[in-house]
Amino acid sequence: MKIILDTNFLMGISQFGVDIFSQLSGNDLFTIEPVIRELRSFETGDSKKARAAKLALEIMKSKHLKVLKSKETSADKSLITYSSKGYAIATQDIELRKKVKEAGGQSIYIRQRKYVII
Length: 118
Hints:
The protein is of the alpha/beta class and 118 residues long. Helix content is 48%, strand content 19%. It contains six helices and six strands. The protein has helices spanning 7-16, 20-23, 33-42, 48-62, 75-83, 94-102, and strands at 2-5, 28-32, 66-68, 88-90, 107-111, 115-117. The chain has a six-stranded mixed β-sheet with strand order 3-2-1-4-5-6. Strand 4, helix 6 (94-102) and strand 5 form a beta-alpha-beta unit. Helix 1 (7-16) crosses helix 4 and helix 3 packs across helix 4.
């Protein structure tokens, strides 16, 4: 399965302590350019959010996560477009999950702070 990881899903690695990569092993994992821009905008400072964004960017590099190009400037719009092309979207955003479902796509999320639900 081709799965695109959203900003808040990647930040959930440090927030929830979930090893999403072991739970999603065997799948092709991607992210998109707008997600990287969002993470970079969050990484300044010393807040929990900044630390989560820094960790997410480091993990993306270490796991060699593939980055897909996007014509959209909005991450959500781009994710919805990709979901209609057969990519599953990994996100914690309830509204985005609804929009992905309406577009005929599939979403993945973290449940009970420890399980990845497909």
